[in-house]
Amino acid sequence: MSKIVWSMILLLCLSCTKESLDDCPAELACTEVFVSIFVKIVKENQPSYKPAKLEVVFADTGEKKRISENNYGTYAYINDGDMDRISKNGTTIYLIGKDGLDKELFNEKYVIGHDCCHVIKLSGKDEITLKWYRNEQT
Q: For residue 65, with 0-12 CB atoms within 10 Å meaning exposed, 13-18 middle and 19 or more buried, which class applies?
């Protein structure tokens, strides 16, 4: 019995070092919760801010994904539906916000990985704060 337990632990550890979703165990028991990673966007002295355009760019492929507002300036920019685009050990993405004139307001770098079940934020901001200048139109 002890050999079986140690064999299972070894197999689990070996599977954790692999990169792609294809290398995840086929019989992995995952929760049915759909995980999303959120960021809050605010403008100085305002509780929230909605950029005219918000998108994710996957650094390795250049692929783009449009994002829509969730609640009170909080945006779900990556979710479990994106796992096939993400390396287990981390994929660099950029969250880019633009105003109505297509002027870039921010360009934030994130590293997103997964645990074979759900996406995980490895690095990046939880909140983006834009500075307000008097000569700004947005």
A: middle
85 within 8 A of 63, measured Cβ to Cβ = yes
What was the pLDDT predicted at 20?
53
Beta bridge partners of 62: none
| Mean pLDDT along residues 50-62 | 94
Torsion of CA 97, 102, 82, 79, to 10 degrees: 40
Question: Residues with Cβ < 8 Å from 70, sequence gap 6 or more?
Answer: 38, 76
DSSP character at residue 46: S
Q: Structure tokens of 51?
A: 């950029």
Is the pTM above the cut of 0.90? no
Instruction: Please name the residues in contact with 69: beta carbons below 8 A apart, sequence gap of 6 or more.
Output: 50, 75
* Half-sphere exposure (Cβ direction) of 16: Cα atoms closer than 13 Å: 7
pLDDT digits (tens, 9 = 90+) for 76-127: 999 999 999 999 999 999 999 999 999 999 999 999 999 999 999 999 999 9
Residue 84 one-letter amino acid: D
